[in-house]
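Dear support,

I submitted the protein below through the web form. The confirmation email said the job was done, but the results page showed an empty box. After a refresh the structure appeared. I'm attaching both so you can tell me whether what I see now is the final result or a partial one.
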Amino acid sequence: MDPFYTVMPSFFDLTFKELMEQKHPTAWLEFERGELTEEEFLNKFFKDNRYIDAADLHKKLAKNYKWVPGMMELLGRLRTAGFQLHAFSNYPIWWKIIEQELRLSDYLSWSFVSCHGPMKGFRKPEPFAYKRVEEALRASFDSFPEKRMDVTGVSYSSDSSSICGAYNNGVIDQAKITKMNVVPSNTTLGDTPNKEW
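What the results page shows now:
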């Protein structure tokens, strides 16, 4: 689970509302897109340019990245079944802290993160973010004509914004989406409902 909404405010001894009022309006988005280094981001994060101790912030974040209940088991089952899994995330270079703590690379490749790689500089739901993912995956499948590229989304949230965003922006047509599983965040793997989209 992403600690941004709880850990970041408490680290600065602020409420979430206060944090939103005091932070720079675009610094986080620029950091996520890889337009700012971490040092530049930390210097710009607050409107008043207050000092942020990067090492202490890293420790606090690292301690609070956690698996969503049931997700590790789900990823393990998908890996065992032979699926090739990729991260598709709006996140800054701090994805490396997540990797260090949770070892997601045991289950997936950090292929598509807004701060690096083919998606660098673009964030969901921007249409070009989806286009870059589709282009990269299509290139890897073009050399294997017997394989089919299907887009299946599994979202642990109240909506399926990523895949729906791609569909609504005209990047992925509905025929390419074989199944959409929407899993509320308070659901465990054993009672996961399947809701086809």
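Response: this is the final, complete result; the empty box was a page-load delay. Confidence is low (pLDDT under 50) at residues 154-197.
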